[in-house]
Design a protein that fits this description.
heterodimer; A: mainly beta; globular; B: mainly beta; 5-stranded mixed sheet; 4-stranded antiparallel sheet; 9 strands; about 0% helix
């Protein structure tokens, strides 16, 4: 079974631009979660989508948004990029997103904001 | 979700068992204990999880104390490829797709 895939793997943007990242979950998984990883803050939860609805949200500004499609694929968008948005963005999928469902992570998208 | 405490780092000799401790003294009855690891710049890798009973899979064993206030992840025969940051995470029923990562334990396996 194919794992979680994320595109693109690397991205360079400038301040003020916006960016869209894509995540394809494992087949059959309906929950998709997004995380940001930086050297200073570590791994932080952004939000989770299940059945095209945002079900859980971390403590990030409104510039960070996401959506999920009917095939469970998900995208996240960051608008008005700041230098501090440079990070590894990780996507994870699970069957239902329940506490007893393990999450499987993709390789991440490395975003650099200049 | 309950907070976890892990040692910041530990070394292990190749071929020996690595025992990684985790304290979660405020864990509640319906919260699961999860272990993940992250090799530099890769996505975290799921290792194992459990609720009350000890668990074993092809990667590792998870030993949870009877009072559930602590647990130990055991890598039975550490290899150089096991060098990674290991995260112990507690998840409650209202976590809805959220894993709360702490600083983890940096494990270095030496030849």
């Amino acid at each position: 079974k194919a794992g979680v895939t994320q595109t693109p793997r690397y991205l360079i943007k400038t301040r003020g631009q916006q960016v869209t990242l894509s995540c394809s979950p494992i087949s059959g998984h309906r929950s998709v979660s997004w995380y940001q990883q930086t050297p200073g803050q570590g791994l932080q939860f952004l939000f989770e989508y299940f059945s095209e609805t945002q079900r859980n949200k971390g403590n990030f500004p409104g510039r960070f948004s996401g959506r999920q499609f009917s095939n469970s694929r998900s995208e996240m968008n960051v608008s008005t990029l700041e230098l501090g948005d440079s990070a590894l963005y990780l996507c994870a999928s699970s069957l239902q997103g329940e506490s007893y469902n393990e999450q499987f992570f993709g390789p991440g998208t490395r975003l650099t904001v200049l | 979700d309950a907070k976890t405490t892990q040692p910041p780092s530990m070394d292990c000799a190749e071929g020996r068992a690595a025992n990684l401790p985790c304290n979660h003294s405020t864990i509640s009855g319906n919260e699961y204990v999860y272990w993940y690891r992250q090799i530099h710049s890769q996505g975290p890798q799921y290792i194992i999880h459990g609720l009350k009973n000890n668990e074993t899979n092809e990667m590792a064993s998870l030993i949870i104390t009877e009072d559930r206030k602590s647990s130990t992840l055991i890598l039975p025969h550490a290899t150089l490829r096991d060098t990674a940051v290991y995260y112990c995470i507690v998840r409650g029923t209202d976590s809805w797709g959220k894993l709360q990562f702490g600083a983890g334990t940096q494990v270095v396996v030496t030849p």
